Every structure is written in structure tokens, then in C-alpha cells.
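QA checklist item 7 of 12: single-chain prediction sanity check.
[x] sequence parsed
[x] length recorded as 83
[x] structure emitted
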Amino acid sequence: MSLTHIANVVGGRLADVFDPDALVTQPAGFDSRDAVPGSLFLALTGQHTDGHAYAEAAFKNRASASAQLVVCSSSWTHRNTAP
């Protein structure tokens, strides 16, 4: 599936993409150490780290692209359940 097709399916848009027709032929993932040629690295921001800091490592492992999640609006709320 091409990056353009993925962006259309999820209602996103491509920005700063070298090749919008690049194919993602492997699974998407959020661990840069698991990135392989043809994979899509999902740069997620978590409680303890920001996945964007690992995008370069994913590309060194030859991931096809890195996707960033930007939430524009949502009714979802996070509840901290830690003691």
C-alpha cells in the first residue's frame, strides 16, 4: 500500500514526504528497533518518551516512512489510574 493510499484511508495528509508513492510492504510498528525495509514507523508520544526522537533510528533500519499522530479533536479522555 502506498503512503498516499494510507493517508487517504486514515483521513490524514502527507507532509515532507520524499516519495508519496513509496510502498509499505511490512507491518507498521512503534518500536524503532523493529523497523525493517518496507515498514511504517509510528512515532507516538507516550507518558515517558516521545517516539519522534526515534524516527532517525527507524530510518537507519530502513523503514519506508515515519508517521506522526496529531489529534485535532477527540471525545476520548485519558484517566490516570496509577496509585
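[x] summary fact logged: The helical segments are 3-10, 55-60.
[ ] second reviewer sign-off
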